Please model this.
Amino acid sequence: MIWTAVLVSALGCYLLKLAGLSVPQRVLDRPYVRRVADLIPVTLLAALVAVQIVSDGSRLVFDARAVGLAAAVVALLLRAPFLAVVAVAALAAALARLV
Model:
């Protein structure tokens, strides 16, 4: 049963990739399509971050990770460099865990 699921998933991924490659160039050149394609990675990353920050198995939690995310958002709003944002988030999360 598990191998059936693996094979069906692999076939689905292949067909999805094939469908993406078969889209005509005139469709891909539309500004709306370009804008959506540019935003898809951002939304996927935001969804992954949200799941990692506020979930613990099957329940919602707000702990030091949320404090770290809030600190990172503030650092981003202040236009801090990426490494500084990571350092601020890690420091805020560590201090919240300490408290």
Observations:
- The mean pLDDT is 92.
